[in-house]
Write a structure and sequence with these properties.
Number of strands: 6
Shape: rod-shaped
Oligomer: single chain
Radius of gyration: 45 Å
CATH topology of the domain at 2-107: OB fold (Dihydrolipoamide Acetyltransferase, E2P)
Structural class: alpha+beta
Distance between the termini: 125 Å
CATH architecture of the domain at 2-107: Beta Barrel
């Protein structure tokens, strides 16, 4: 059981029955450019006017009902609604079959299905956002761990540098203590005495 969506049941100036042809289908593609828009359906494109291009139905921008047709096409495409497209029997829109009417249909249970589908998509989006947030938190934790380890390594490096500085100071102090009051180191003084005694040449 189908019913019309009144807001999109587009009524144009009455045309003779012979000048019209209708197709019941679902819109699979809506294309648009600066001069026109077109729709591709899941059914064979009707072409009673023998237009040269049969890849889609079309509405040119100068059509008085362009905006209404475009809104209806987008709505039908978005909710995957069944649509009746009425095309001109003898005229083309540029090179394609010309749309002169469009009705959107909806089964009684379709609205509930659409709402449920949107709710499912929202739930999946929330779940995905939760996963992204958890991943971001994990990255932050890893970053903090790396920063802490870097600080620890820097502290260890500073401690090592302080120890080396202390060793240098102690070595320098030992060197001062080993000097004779005359300024000659004890090692040099011992060598000089040994040379005079003939112990070494």
């Amino acid at each position: 059981m189908y019913r019309f969506l009144p807001i999109f049941a587009i009524a144009l100036i009455a045309q003779p029955a012979a000048a019209q042809n209708s197709a019941n289908a679902t819109i699979s593609t809506v294309w648009v450019n600066e001069a026109a828009f077109g729709v591709v359906t899941d059914q064979r494109i009707l072409n009673p006017a023998q237009c040269t291009a049969t890849d889609s139905y079309m509405v040119q921008k100068e059509s008085p009902a362009y905006n209404a047709f475009y809104s209806a096409a987008l709505s039908a495409y978005t909710v995957n609604s069944q649509v009746t497209i009425t095309i001109h029997q003898t005229e083309c829109a540029d090179t394609r079959p010309k749309i002169i009417g469009m009705n959107l249909h909806r089964a009684a249970g379709d609205l509930v299905g659409v709402v449920n589908t949107m709710a499912g998509q929202a739930a999946r989006t929330d779940s995905r956002m939760g996963e992204i947030a958890a991943l971001a938190n994990n990255i932050n934790r890893q970053t903090n761990i790396v920063a802490q380890r870097t600080e620890q390594q820097m502290a260890q490096g500073n401690t090592m540098a302080a120890k080396l500085e202390k060793i240098d100071q102690e070595t320098l102090g030992i060197g001062r203590q080993m000097r004779h009051p005359s300024g000659i180191t004890l090692i040099a003084l011992v060598g000089l005495i040994a040379a005079k005694l003939g112990v070494i040449n």
